[in-house]
Specification:
Chorismate Mutase Domain, subunit A; 12 helices; binds manganese (II) ion; elongated; TIM Barrel; alpha/beta; 8-stranded parallel β-barrel; 2 domains; binds phosphoenolpyruvate; two-stranded antiparallel ribbon
Amino acid sequence: MANKIDRLREELDAINLQLLELINKRGEIVQKIGKIKTKQGVNRFDPVRERNMLENLKKENKGPFEDACIEHIFKQIFKASLDLQNVEEVNHLLVSRKKHPEDTIITINGTEIGQAGSPAYIFGPCAVESYEQVDTVAAALASKGFKFMRGGAFKPRTSPYDFQGLGMEGLKILRAVADKHGLSIISEIVNPADLQEAANYLDVIQIGARNMQNFELLKEAGKINKPILLKRGLAATIEEFILAAEYIMSNGNGNIILCERGIRTYEKATRNTLDITAVPILKQETHLPVFVDVVHSTGRRDLLLPAAKAALAIGADGIMAEVHPDPAVALSDSSQQMNLAQFDSFVEKINLFSNKIR
Ligand code: PEP
Ligand code: MN
């Protein structure tokens, strides 16, 4: 009896190997079809074709498996084949490191972003409020040798009754102050129609968390000749974040900085939850520089320094944080911006840390 079972098992082993070979052969053909479909720009998933294949299999089914069981097994095979095409797709993204193994270095007015071991910093107020306010912050930045200043002019506020920003007027203030102090500036644009005009004033255009999936804005950002800092959406997966960057790059603009800024979770101790491991994941999966915004992720002044240290330690190419001459009267994010004395101390400590881990 034992002998008989052994023989039947040998038969099963041989069939397993045949199935294995056939499934992989099937996979190779599916990949070929996927490539042709990509070239033609047609959708890979073809439900009508899938339905026909299942009907045909059920018609030919002589048992002992029931039709429902055959349908279930083959659906798994179809699904695995489609996933095979999707894996290929991710590896072929323009932003993918598999496609472009070297780090992308973005040079802005002579300063490089993305150079391993030399992190960049973007500091500045949450919002541009006045010439004097921006000028005070810019003087502090320039005196410490920083090159980039931020300041929101088109503010995407949760409430329509909150300060909405100074708009183009704000960008003009930023430009004037930046030229006075030799800084490069970055500011958020929310409307595709404003991109071209904004590009006259800005060195880097920010696309904010709330607009990460504003696909028309992403497409237009791909058509302008300015680096883009793209922030992760409030509830975006890393895959969605990468695909948002792909929108920009596939429209012609490869100068993209990714910025992790925290995601919404059930945790209330911080404004958002800083997804720190998104940094090495994004560095592995893409060739783009990755920044961490320690302000909007934590929403807490006492966490800016530890979050910035964590970001540098885990391989971020840069940090963004907010500085305001008098945060108590700031028109937005007043509880999380640093004043100038806090900024001094932050810079001293983060520089020490950065030198130590280099
Ligand atoms: C900002 O940087 O000013 C901002 C609004 O950030 P986020 O889009 O990440 O919320
Ligand atoms: Mn802010």
